[in-house]
Structure formats: C-alpha cells, structure tokens
C-alpha cells in the first residue's frame, strides 16, 4: 500500500475523474499483489454487462473485510465507495480512503444528507459510486439483511442505473471476528443494471426490493 500510495493519491488530487482512472490501475495492483501473496484470488462474472465509461451506482452485499478489495479488483472503471467515518482512523488506509472515498457519520442525519449531496456531485462528474446498502457488515446466518434507503434515493434523484453485485466466499476466507485468513477464491457477480430513468421517490421501496431480490438470488444460486 505504501509503495502504491503516491500513484493513487496524487492523480486524484490533480484531476479527480481522469486521475481516478490512473489511480484505479494502482489500486488494482495493490489489491491483487497483496491478495496473491496471501493466497487469495478473485473471479468476476458479468463485467460485460457494464458499458465503458458509464456512470453507475453499485450495490453489494457485505459480510467480510475482504469485500472491499474484491470490489476494487472486479469493477473495471474508477469509482468512489461510501464508508463509515471510523475508517479514517485506520493507519495508512484511512489516509487513502479520505481521497478515494466518501465518508458518513452514521449517528448524524445531517452527515448522511451532506454525504449524499457530495456523492451526487461525484455522479454529475461521471464518477460511479459504491454502496453497501445493508449499512453494516452482515454477521447473521441470512444471506442479506434489510437494506437502507440511501443508495436508492440517490439513484432515483440522479437518475443513475443501479448495478446489483453479489460477493461470494469472502466470509469463509476471512470471517469478521477472526484473524484466521484462509486461502481461496472470492467470486464477484454483476447483475444486469437496473434503469432508474423516469422513476420518482414513490418508486423507492420497489427499487430497493428489486435490488435486494436480485442480489439474494445471485448469492443463493449454486
């Protein structure tokens, strides 16, 4: 991470959109290098459904700390993730995330609103956004826990397509409350983009339910 840090931060600081594409290359080098040395590999399915340079709101399940590197390795173009404010306290990675992501204070409604407005500005620049719509890491026996509304409000408000994503096997390789890192392959599947053009806030719950069911179906598919 330290070796890749200048090549990630500086391009974004100079030009967020064009520099982001360059930074994304080095993020992928870091992620794949770190994980290969750890015996962890990634396999992405369905990337052909994504249009080059299109702007999306990616929504993925979240059950392991390995979900983030799996997503970085799998999404082809540059994107910005939404993360909790506590991430900024992490050594080195917190500094990186300050530049590559958007943080939110989950205890403050005003912070949530400011974060959504900031994300909307990124979308208007043509930058895709990643949400974990469960709002926290899923530690239950269920494949998914109920979604929060932020990603879907933003998708409708900005008329940006939602891309459902299913991350499989990350919990088995690194459970949340364990330091035992196993070897293996994390599978990331992309669903068909869900259009939001013409939708209004009255459609929010149905959009949320549709996305939930698509991700759940991919997770439970053998």
Account of the 3D structure:
The protein is α/β, with parallel strands linked by helices. It has one domain (41-220): Glycerol-3-phosphate (1)-acyltransferase (3-Layer(aba) Sandwich), CATH 3.40.1130. Helix content is 42%, strand content 17%. It is built from 8 helices and 7 strands, in the order H-H-E-E-H-E-H-E-H-E-H-E-H-E-H. It has helices spanning 5-14, 16-37, 67-74, 93-100, 109-124, 150-158, 170-173, 204-220; strands at 40-45, 57-60, 79-84, 102-104, 128-131, 162-168, 184-190. The chain has a 7-stranded mixed sheet with strand order 1-7-6-2-5-3-4, with helices on both faces. Helix 4 links the parallel strand 3 (79-84) and strand 4. Helix 1 runs antiparallel to helix 2 (16-37) and helix 2 (16-37) crosses helix 3 (67-74). The protein is globular, with a radius of gyration of 17 Å. The chain starts with a helix and ends with a helix. The model has no long low-confidence stretch (mean pLDDT 88).
